[in-house]
Amino acid sequence: MYFSYSSSNISRSDSVRHRLTKARLFRLKMSWIWRTIFAYIPFVFIIQRLDSKELKIGALIPWNGSWPAGPRMASALLLGLEYVKLHNLIPNYNLTYVWKDDMCSAAASLRGISDLWVALKPPVDVFVGPACSVGCVPGAHLAAHWNIPMISYGCGDAELSDKNQYPTFTRTVGPYTHSGKFFVKIMQEYNWHQVAILTSTEQIWSQIASFIKEDMEASSTSKNKLQVSYFQTFNHILTTDSRFKDMLRSARTRAHSKLAFDCTYGNCMLYLLVVLAVIG
């Protein structure tokens, strides 16, 4: 997501500092998330082997695929394990882990989950992940069938809130249905009244964009009117450079330079920011 009053060129040194700061904040956030996940484990962990003093975690991390965030977040798993051991949060148990690449896809997530439970001997005691809802939705069904806890740090699909369907699933993030409330608060804080939304045709992002639009329209009042003045979808693979520029110009004009990008994964977001800088 990205908000901007206007585009401007950023000096190279400022850009480098920005990227370093962003990277540090990302690692800090992921470290906190993993600590939170491990804090969940004592409450949701169902002891399968009472004679075992090992608690084996099956971590599902997107190392490759459409959202290859694994190389940036995987170290947080080690920090979380060290934090648990240092503060003795799960006494008398030795925490170990095995990880699989979920690739942010249903197929890779299911392969990883099956390997960690069926092929691995002894199997894991708890799943941490997958990272994306396309893996969590089918994977959480398997976890429920096996009566194994699954704790996700990134799946926001509203369907996963149904405890009848997913009784052993929990997560450290909110569902996508709450996305709009966040943007409504930003609009109110800065006294903005118009916004443009550009969203990828990928299901996850178009769904979030729809929730944002619905919440903004529902929160609009006569005294504080909120309007989505431009709403446009695009295919990040097929859309041409000239088409991207046209969309950004239209969005900036109709929203009076206040833009909301509900885009797609990292590379596409970076590309849109570059195009925005080019058109000025």
Give a structural overview:
It is a single chain. With about 280 residues, this protein is an alpha/beta fold. Helix content is about 50%, strand content about 15%. The chain contains eight helices and nine strands. It has a five-stranded parallel sheet. The protein has a four-stranded mixed sheet with strand order 1-9-7-8, with helices on both faces. Helix 4 links the parallel strand 4 and strand 5 (about 150). Helix 1 (about 10-45) packs across helix 2 (about 70-85) and helix 5 crosses helix 6 (about 205-220). It starts with a strand and ends with a helix.
Structure at a glance:
By secondary structure, the protein is of the alpha/beta class.
What labels describe this entry?
single chain; 280 residues; alpha/beta; five-stranded parallel sheet; four-stranded mixed sheet; disordered N terminus
Write the layout of secondary structure elements.
Elements: E1 3-4, H1 12-44, E2 54-61, H2 70-86, E3 94-101, H3 106-119, E4 126-128, H4 133-146, E5 150-152, E6 169-171, H5 179-189, E7 194-200, H6 203-219, E8 227-234, H7 241-254, E9 259-262, H8 266-279
Helix pairs in contact: 1-2, 3-4, 5-6, 7-8
